[in-house]
Amino acid sequence: MSALALTGAATVACTPPPSGPTAQEQFCTLWDKVGADEVAADNAVLVKSDVVAFADGAAQVGSACDASGAKVELDAAVLAEGKEIAEEQGTSSTDKVAAVTGDEIGAAEPVLDNIELRALNAQIGVGGITVTGNVAVRLSGTTSTIGFTGTVSNLDNWSVSLASSGLTIPGVTTSPVVFSGKLAVAGGVPTLTMSASASTVKVGDITVTGAAVSLTASQNTGVSASVKGAIKVGPSSATGNVAISFDEAGALVSANADVSARLVGTQAGGKKIDLTGTVHLEGNATETAISFSGSGILGDLQINEAAGSLVLATNKATFVGKLDVAQGNTYVRFNGSIVWDGITAYTPFLSVEGAGEFSGTLDDGTAVAVAGNVSTEIVGGQVRSVVTGNFKIGTLKANGTAVVQMSGATTTLEISADLDTAGFTGRLEGAVVITDGRAETVQLDASVSGALTLGDITLTNANFGIRSSYGNPLELSFGGAIKVGSRADLNGSLAAAFGPNGTLITLEGDVNGSLLLDSWGIANFSGHVLVGTEQVALSGTGRVTTTNFPLGIEFNGTFTSSRTTPSWSLSGGGRFRIGSIDVASARMTLSQAAGMKATRVGFYFSIIGIPTYLEADFYMNSGGGCSKVQLTGGSFLARPIASLILPGVVGCSVYN
């Protein structure tokens, strides 16, 4: 339901008289048109001062238009912004036709990229318009149909209430749940809000019980969900909130949560292992990276900080990472593993960090660490210690060397290492500054060797950067040329997320460049990219200049490409010319499956020297020009004549 202005080369607007008909008079006019069978799927009638309607069928309910409770029922309706205009421009003719001038709602009309109206029926009375029907919502590759009822004041501001009998969101809900909510348009901008209660929700390794699920979709904010409830962390649970991001087409991209948790168990000798801290979860529907940062006791040891990764199973949590143990006024760093299995706990290993091991932890529990062999080398004319071994940067892995400089409590690692298991190759170069066990600065860069491929997205000549300061979580991003199949050529900076095994799972960021739409030319694109395990989605705005539309198209839409079959669609408004017909503005849809077309195009066309109003759908050839024109509105007398004359003007067949 994008905003539209469908007018011809000559303006179709007309100045209304100082005072118009009353609501009752306007309704009685509609009543009479229904009685005369003037309402049809290809013939619009005025139903309010600024709303016109098409319908497959229409019926009068009541004895007369001024009877109590009288109404008009429209089956398979299409409602559109519109007005009545002169049938013949520049003449004294009083005949009027209903013309579409803006937004429309009806079956098969998209509301958002992942929401489409499937059915719409309308009841029109003196007091206004009531609509019923159903809407299709696509989430995680599954489409669900939800019924609605509501009122329409005007096409820029309306709302309907939604209720589902049972809706499952793959990768989120484990069984059907009943959603209720609202689909509303305010100022021409549609927003969907839905909520439900679910006994269990599971996103990757994140399980939430007693969950309250809320879902929001908007042109301004995209598609997202929030799940609040008890989050299971091994043998314990805590109240928390999981934020779930979808792309514009409804595919789940990522899930994130930060919860306060307490992990407690008793060792065989009766002593407790009791840590309290924060669990950070980041992943998607298939895998999750989980880290923990906290403090507490491990038997007789006082843990100032424990930072590392968690692996969760039913009633079990396994921690692997760094533990800073208090010894007097100082802390000794240990490598360790702790397992909480139900009410019991144990430590598979616990050893002091030795020679050749250096590590710095971050606030979210992740760490930057190297373990290897230390040697003495002359670097730049100075004797330096060099460690050669394996690096761990969050969930990323690498192997190489680091020059070690130590000054008091500060250790600087000058790193040169090759990435390992990341799904792409590149050599990390840069520095990590560690003070009192805290990674104060992380600044590493790599030039990606060859092309990086994730699903249908390919990064070429890419640069990969890792940044952190003052213990903040790592920021990982790519910059470079981005391609989606052979159809997108973009540049931008993309934030990256890596799974627990160090493999790249999601990308997100702002991009600009061009989209090659088969043989239809180049669209200058500026927008947002979301890459998940299911598909790539590019959402934004641009301008297309092609032989079909020599005056250009301004579009706002989403380009999607799945892992297996690239598919895309764009929609918007624009100006174009076919033959001598110069359309000031029309609704455009471009899609790999349905081709390119301009719909409900209103224009004046000269018939026997008289400019006569017509509406039509123009179907375009990819190589230029039109393949056919389907007349959709205008005078019953003018349309048969236009179908004979127009082909010579536009260069393709015209159907009435």
List the helices and strands and how they pair.
Layout: H1 23-35, E1 45-48, E2 51-54, E3 57-61, E4 71-75, E5 78-86, E6 96-106, E7 110-112, E8 115-125, E9 128-139, E10 142-154, E11 157-163, E12 180-186, E13 189-203, E14 206-218, E15 222-233, E16 236-246, E17 252-266, E18 272-283, E19 288-298, E20 301-313, E21 316-327, E22 330-341, E23 344-352, E24 357-361, E25 367-379, E26 382-393, E27 396-407, E28 410-420, E29 425-435, E30 438-449, E31 452-454, E32 457-469, E33 475-484, E34 488-498, E35 504-516, E36 522-531, E37 535-545, E38 553-562, E39 569-578, E40 581-591, E41 595-607, E42 610-620, E43 626-634, H2 638-650, E44 653-655
Parallel strand pairs: 43-44
Antiparallel strand pairs: 1-2, 2-5, 3-4, 4-8, 5-6, 7-8, 8-9, 9-10, 10-11, 11-12, 12-13, 13-14, 14-15, 15-16, 16-17, 17-18, 18-19, 19-20, 20-21, 21-22, 22-23, 24-25, 25-26, 26-27, 27-28, 28-29, 29-30, 30-32, 31-32, 32-33, 33-34, 34-35, 35-36, 36-37, 37-38, 38-39, 39-40, 40-41, 41-42, 42-43
